[in-house]
Amino acid sequence: ACPRQSDLKFEKMSEERAALLEETVKELAKRLELLEKQQSSSPASDAVLQADSQEKEALKAELHKTSQENKSLRDQIPKLQYQIKHLIRSLEIEENKVSELSQELKQYKRQAAS
Q1: CA dist., res. 93 & res. 102, Å (int)
Q2: pLDDT digits over 11-48, tens only?
Q3: What span, in angstroms and rounded, lies between the C-alpha atoms of 24 and 76?
Q4: Rounded CA gap, 112 and 104, in Å?
Q5: CA 28 to chain CA centroid, nearest Å
Q6: Whole-number mean pLDDT of the chain?
Q7: Listed residue (63, 77, 72) closest to 24, CA to CA
Q8: By the 8 A CB rule, do 88 and 18 touch?
Q9: Cα angle at 33 between 14 and 71, to 5 degrees?
Q10: CA dihedral defined by 25, 27, 30, 32, rounded to 10 degrees?
């Protein structure tokens, strides 16, 4: 029961991280859109426009990086789920072996006592 609980916790953390990254992507997109609106609606000096443009490019880069990280995490989820299922199955097999050995040991002890 313990490994399954920690596997589920890990899976939940991965999903929460992916959701957090999605929120970050949305927030960055909103900031980028706001910057573009401000840039197009207000007459500003070249220096301010240049700074806005640089910030816009930085936001685009950050948005792209975060999107890639999010995609990477989402792509890992099925693989991790498969690994978790495989580990659980291996653990069940080992538990069965331990149970069988325990029964054998009890049987030998009974035979030795009689």
Answers
A1: 14
A2: 777 788 888 888 888 888 898 888 888 767 666 577 77
A3: 19
A4: 12
A5: 20
A6: 85
A7: 63
A8: no
A9: 25
A10: -70
Distances in whole angstroms, Cα of residue 42 to Cα of each of 30, 51, 68: 18, 14, 33
Count of helix runs (H) and strand runs (E) in the chain: 2, 0
Instruction: Please give the structure tokens belonging to residue 110.
Output: 């009974």
10: three-class secondary structure by DSSP? helix
13 residue type, one letter? M
Please state whether the predicted TM-score (pTM) of the whole model is above 0.70: no
Count other C-beta atoms under 10 Å from residue 108's C-beta: 10
Which pair of tokens denotes residue 2? 């313990």
Confidence (pLDDT) at 57: 92
